[in-house]
Amino acid sequence: MATAATTTPAKMQAVQYDAYGGGAAGLKHVEVPVPSAKKNELLLKLEAVAINPADWKIQQGELRPLVPRKFPFIPGIDVAGVVVDVGPGVNGFQAGDQVVAIDINHTFDTTYVQSGGGLADYAVASESLTVKRPPNVSAAEGAGLPVAAGAALKALKAIGAKFDGTGEPLNVLVTAASGGVGLYAVQLAKLAGLHVTATCGARNAELVRSLGADEVLDYKTPDGASLKNPSGKKYDGVVHCTSGISWSTFQPVLSDSGKVVDITPNNLSTILTTALHMVTFARKRLVPLWGPPNKAELEFLVTMLKDGKMKTLIDSRFPLSDVTKAWEKSIEGHATGKIIVEMEG
């Protein structure tokens, strides 16, 4: 439909790793060919990419042998940038459009491994997972959305939240509410008209309250560790954004049909508990959450930013040349909001 707005170079700077493990030290700055947009794809000149725990967990091998399918591997899924070229069949975008995209093809398809990830000057994204970014939403704000806000939105929908004014005023708990997913979950839950209890460290309690939490529990206190609602309410749903909390802790604080939606279902305990609830038809359930948001969900999230109904809280920003610092910060944990890598030049 459109041709590149400017001359695209043959090579680009990127960050990749060539084996499982290694942490930040395993990341290498390399020069690789710029990818090209194939059918139903867009070539993006990237401006910002968010670092998610999933990125370094993939490096650690937590999803092997599914991901990566091949080495070397350029990580990075949540991206924002400008369209510079479009492939055959693309009708909704043209060169010059500012966008937010889920750059996930490279993660599961070996044809993208050498040149497809988000930690690079350019990346290819599917039209079906790309949305336009309005002028009042910055690249960094947009890049923070897909994985984290998408997980929060999907989790709340699984609990029963509705965003059209027709939902019930459910009582929900958000664990690790000052993290990347948790901060979005609190805001989205309030947009859905839910009563929100949140757990976080004492230093972030006021921030979480300012985003709409009705009650905040310090997870280091006995009441916080037991997840007891200060008002004595039972939770209709939990957006579970951390690890290390057993099902036996959740069970007594749930309503009769309460659900715990686990956004980090990568351990055997989660899998076994979920299977047990399914075969016994339990009303209280642990529900694993898989997969990125779809296009309609991503458009909804961008619209919430545009309209000022939600915001991306950014913990820190790093240039691509300092990507190892961003990687280390994510691995260390306790970031308040999103960790963003911004492209230089």
How would you describe this structure in keywords?
single chain, 345 residues, alpha/beta, Quinone Oxidoreductase, Chain A, domain 1, Rossmann fold, seven-stranded mixed β-sheet, six-stranded parallel β-sheet, globular, disordered N terminus, GroES-like_sf, ER, Chloroplast_QOR
List the helices and strands and how they pair.
Elements: E1 11-16, E2 28-33, E3 41-51, H1 53-60, E4 78-86, E5 98-102, H2 105-108, E6 122-126, E7 130-132, H3 139-143, H4 145-159, E8 171-174, H5 180-191, E9 195-200, H6 205-210, E10 215-218, H7 222-226, E11 235-240, H8 247-250, E12 254-262, H9 268-279, E13 285-288, H10 295-306, E14 314-319, H11 323-332, E15 338-342
Parallel strand pairs: 8-9, 8-11, 9-10, 11-12, 12-13, 14-15
Antiparallel strand pairs: 1-2, 3-4, 3-6, 3-15, 4-5, 5-7
Helix pairs in contact: 4-5, 4-10
Write up what this structure looks like:
By secondary structure, the chain is an alpha/beta fold. Helix content is 27%, strand content 26%. The chain has 11 helices and 15 strands. It has helices at residues 53-60, 105-108, 139-143, 145-159, 180-191, 205-210, 222-226, 247-250, 268-279, 295-306, 323-332, and strands at 11-16, 28-33, 41-51, 78-86, 98-102, 122-126, 130-132, 171-174, 195-200, 215-218, 235-240, 254-262, 285-288, 314-319, 338-342. The strands form 3 sheets. Strands 3, 4, 5, 6, 7, 14 and 15 form a 7-stranded mixed sheet that branches. A 6-stranded parallel sheet has the order 10-9-8-11-12-13. The two termini are 27 Å apart. Pfam families: ADH_N, ADH_zinc_N_2. InterPro entries: ADH-like_N, Chloroplast_QOR, ER, GroES-like_sf, NAD(P)-bd_dom_sf.
